[in-house]
Design brief:
Elements: H1 3-9, E1 26-28, E2 36-38, E3 56-58, E4 63-65, E5 82-87, E6 92-101, E7 107-118, E8 128-134, E9 140-148, E10 162-169, E11 177-186, E12 192-203
Antiparallel strand pairs: 1-2, 3-6, 4-5, 5-12, 6-11, 7-10, 7-12, 8-9, 8-11
């Protein structure tokens, strides 16, 4: 029983303020405290379809509209018309970030779609993309996931979105405002493309 529900039954708070526990958007938290965590996506505009809402981009052309690409281009959005395209150029760093407030939960899960297409798929790691949670000063709080040119089959492989699913501990920064950041770094040789769409960051246990 949550603390709020106990106060309701004791007549100390209005029961109208107690959340509906049948609401699928609500789950008990992971720390055993009985609080309720809302199952909404912590990322604003995780599908990039209302860009630039939610995100800060550097440079500003990371999000692509599939309708504006050449008709013979293989890439397309997983949902809607837009997707995020990191890499894709030589000797460049690209960053997308947004501030989020982490609920009081022990773990978070990141889901979505990704695709990697690279010229070099064996040997040395040349180009990378990292998904991280950092503080206001840019200090790393936790590494979420990442990919490199070695995660690609080939640059000319048939384009097909892959499922992204990973879980991370969140207690060290639970209830705090932090930054979710995606950073790609490409060197001066052998181009790599990192694509993302339909990103959702939620407490574990949420559908």
């Amino acid at each position: 029983m949550s603390r709020l529900l106990a106060l309701c039954l004791a007549g100390l708070v209005a029961c109208a303020n107690v959340p509906d526990y049948d609401d699928p958007r609500l789950i008990p938290d992971d720390d055993g405290g009985g609080d309720v965590v809302t199952c909404t996506n912590l990322l604003v505009n995780g599908a990039f379809d209302t860009t630039p809402v939610g995100w800060t981009f550097n440079p500003g052309d990371i999000v692509k509209d599939e309708r504006q690409l050449p008709t013979d281009h293989p890439f397309y959005a997983s949902s809607g018309d837009y997707f995020a395209w990191f890499g894709g150029s030589y000797n460049q760093t690209k960053i997308a970030s947004q501030k989020i407030t982490v609920p009081n939960t022990a773990k978070l899960k990141l889901t979505g779609k990704y695709f990697v297409a690279a010229v070099t798929t064996a040997g040395n790691m040349e180009d990378t993309v990292k998904l991280e949670i950092v503080d206001d000063a840019g200090k790393l709080l936790t590494f979420v996931t990442g990919f490199s040119n070695l995660d690609s089959v080939s640059e000319t492989a048939t384009f097909l979105w892959k499922d992204l699913h990973t879980e991370i501990p969140s207690q060290p920064f639970a209830t705090k405002a932090v930054t979710f950041r995606i950073t790609s770094v490409n060197d001066a040789m052998n181009n790599t493309n990192f694509l993302f769409d339909s990103l959702e960051l939620k407490p574990t246990g949420c559908l």
